[in-house]
Amino acid sequence: MKSKKFDVVVIGSGPGGYVCAIRLAQLGFKTAIVEKYNSLGGTCLNVGCIPSKSLLDSSHHYDDILNNAKKHGIEINGEVSLDFKKMINRKDDVVSQTVKGIDFLMSKNQISVFNGKASFLEKNLISIEGCYETLSFDKCIIATGSKPVNLPFINLDKKRIITSTEALSLKEIPKHLIIIGGGVIGLELGQVYNRLGSKVSVIEYSDRITPFMDKDVSRELNKVLKKEGINFYLSHQVFQVKSNKKTVSVIAKNKKDEVISFDSDYCLVSVGRKPYTEGLNLEKIGVELDSKGRININERFETSIEGIYAIGDVVRGTMLAHKAEEEGIAVAELISGQKPHINYNLIPNVIYTWPEVASVGKSQEQLENEKIEIKVGKFPMRALGRSRASGDLDGFVKIIADKKSDEILGFHIIGARAADLIIEGVTAMEFRASCEDISMMSHPHPTYSEAIKEAALSALENRPLHI
Ligand code: FAD
Fold first, then answer.
1. Catalytic residues
2. Is the Cβ atom of 379 under 6 angstroms away from ligand 1?
3. How many whole angstroms from 387 Cα to the centroid of ligand 1?
4. pLDDT digits (tens, 9 = 90+) for 109-157
5. Angle between helical axes of 15-26 and 321-335 (0-180°, round to 10)
6. Could you tell me which of 11, 7, 14, 13 has the C-alpha nearest to residue 31?
7. pLDDT tens digits, residue range 223-277?
8. How many helices and strands, by DSSP H and E, does the chain display?
9. Residue 415 in contact with residue 381, Cβ under 8 Å?
């Protein structure tokens, strides 16, 4: 068998892998990337961030026409109808255009692309399924990502009992969609189908949705989604899920041990994701995993085997595309002798529901548990002229700062465009800004960002201007 030699081989072409390959090529390394599927871009581009945002945007337009157009004086004379197939096709087009962009970037940066599942033969040699060549290298970056977690008693038939991947490509709008898990993915897809007319029921084990978010923010999001018609069953433990060809029955227990049965036509299991290392043959070369199946790495992203690195969802930390990208860049720069730095406390979390939710730094609960003396400033979106103009009145900005030094420690937004606004919090915290710093900065009027200045003024001296 022929073998091709590279300086670095990247396994996996998600946002971690492909960004890493680009940075390696920029730094002068002869680089190859291996992707198991024919389409580059990984979970994020193919079955994650991009398709879910496409459906969120399409369903948002539909919902606006149905529920908000009238308020703006827009009368739709005639029937408003939905072509779900076209919506799904548009989503597929968005994905394929985005994937083509990655193909272009690989070729522009002279990165060799191989399609097929990579497997280690030796610590500096891999085979690729269906390919007659092996690849040898000085260094290898594993960026094989993650896959959905299932509960042990559920048989995911992927027809009626589905994961997010199938939920992004359904052939019909569910009449009743049960979602097990009130995390980011479940809520985003729940809002899509709720807007399209499905009855949506979210069953969550914890006593609140998005338990990793600041409590106030979770509560507000829950309130808004409930108002829109999503049913929530919190503190409910699902213990049986069965599919009968066209229906699914789900049985759960509440806090009082009462048994509740649900009948639906689809059940989305979205209880998290787990690292994906199947078929890599890591045992053969001695790359160690931790108790959660993640590849063990040191602070230089190096695994237990010298010259083999791992990044993104397959290692510790939050499973987010931008975290994977930062690690991809950092590992390439480390290999080239530079000294990159990632501040993991400043990786923002975002939920793309509407209102959007975005946060960076610590929640009030976390800071209180750490016994840090804090002050909190909060400002409601509805007090802004911009919010009244658009009609997006829900949500608030909450800034948490150190009581004595005024340094910002947590930045939480729920409201229109929160996903784009959060970068002000990231920038402020990266430069260790205080509430006073933010309160002295000019924020354009009328924008949603004014709520940030107002929240900073509230935290600083309890002197917001507009409430
Ligand atoms: P992945 O993107 O999972 O890519 C890994 C790649 O490796 C895959 O293409 C896989 O086929 C390939 N691979 C695996 N094994 C092999 C092998 N042996 N040989 C060759 N190739 C292999 N994150 C956000 O930040 N924002 C969002 O809005 C967001 N929305 C999401 C919505 C959904 C529905 C889902 C499921 C996820 C979402 N995420 C979001 C999470 C995000 O997609 C992941 O955090 C991100 O894709 C991780 O990047 P990665 O490069 O580590 O791995």
1. 445
2. no
3. 34
4. 999 999 999 999 999 999 999 999 999 999 999 999 999 999 999 999 9
5. 30
6. 7
7. 999 999 999 999 999 999 999 889 999 999 999 999 999 999 999 999 999 999 9
8. 14, 22
9. yes
CA 388 to chain CA mean position, Å:
29
The residue to which tokens 């978010």 are assigned: 213
pLDDT by residue (tens digit) across 358-391? 999 999 999 999 999 999 999 999 999 999 999 9
Cα distance between residue 362 and residue 342, in whole Å: 16
Q: The tokens of 156 are what?
A: 């995911």
Chain center to CA of 321: 7
Distances (CA, A) of 93 to 50, 84, 229, 250: 11, 14, 30, 34
159: number of Cβ within 10 Å: 12
Strands (E), 347-458: 349-351, 356-361, 374-380, 396-402, 408-415
DSSP 296: P
In contact, 35 and 115? CB cutoff 8 Å = yes
Task: Please tell me the distance from the alpha carbon of residue 115 to that of residue 111, in angstroms, as a whole number.
Answer: 13
Nearest CA to 234 among 264, 213, 255, 248? Answer: 255
CA of 190 to the centre of ligand 1 (A): 20
DSSP state of 339: -
Give the Cα separation of 104 and 110 in Å (integer): 10
CA of 15 to the centre of ligand 1 (A): 7
**Atom 36 (ligand 1) nearest CA:** 48
The C-alpha atoms of residue 17 and residue 39 are separated, in whole angstroms, by 13
Token readout for 193 is: 């189908």
Look at the block and give the residue holding tokens 């597929």: 92
